[in-house]
Amino acid sequence: MSCVTTKTSHAHGDGALITAERGTPLDVLDRSIAMEMLADAGFLLLRGFDASLREFSRLVRRMSARITLDPARSLHGGVAQKVDAGLDAVGLHCENGNSPFMPHLCWFFCEKAASVGSETTVCDGYRVWDALAPAAQRAFLDRDIVYSRRVEAAKWKGFVYHALQGKKAIEDVTVDDLLSLAEGRPGTVIRPCDDGAIYYEFQVPAARETLFSDRIAFANSILGPSYNYEKPRITFADREAIPPSLLGEVVRVTEAVTMDVAWQDGDVLLIDNTRVMHGRRAILDPRRTIYNALSFIGLEPGGEG
After folding, report:
1. pLDDT tens-digit map of 167-186
2. Mean pLDDT over residues 162-168, rounded?
3. What pTM value is reported for the model?
4. Tally of CB atoms within 10 A around 231
5. Is 3.60.130.10 the CATH classification of the domain at 1-147+207-305?
6. Alpha carbon distances (Å) from 208 to 116, 143, 199, 236
7. What is the pLDDT of residue 165?
8. Which of 54, 80, 99, 117 is 20 to 30 A from 186 via CA?
């Protein structure tokens, strides 16, 4: 990586900016070094590389053990999905963090940067946890949170079809296949609905250890969006509502430590999805074109990988 320069502090002490000489291919990035840097920094912004959607997809495959997806988004080349969530601002969240299938890594590729605004936001869960008041920390340590909602048949079947890697035709996918994928994932309840949809409940800590460390990070989706899905109900595990005062504390702290990624054409952003939440400022330039990919780096707690 002699043609690559690393700046360990992207801004405010978190994240790493990796810049390259013009024409440097993404292939020069060493997987073990990249993962070591990600473990330390939380997210990596790759800038100046000779990047395209094809090269981005190759990078994701090379760095990952398994690719997953969001069935509500269009797929490009088997890996990347075009980000299409309207023009409004998007709250901080872990990608798929409100489901039992949250990936380890969240990737973005900027094919066309906005001419103004429209930044992606990132927020390090370590910094959030350290800044929360002791009473707020106790509240989230004492009780898990629960996400619950209904998911349409086309969406959950599309997810299962991709997870099974074409072993079954999508019209043959059943709820039993989904239950098999969720087996071994604590806190997950899935029930079929009469119209082919499913209803699920997923219980998980709002603050927990991360992919690379046993340090506690506040990384979840309680502030996140539901653009392509029914908005989930989010409560404590005993079904008690999260008090507005506690949510207000979360908003105050996350806003104080959130930073913006001002995109440039060809940028690649890699996020530790178990530690760093992300969102988006309102899109002011609809020509902005961003692709997303989701992946795992190894065996998951549920046995997949």
Report:
1. 899 999 999 999 999 998 88
2. 86
3. 0.92
4. 11
5. yes
6. 36, 12, 25, 15
7. 81
8. 80
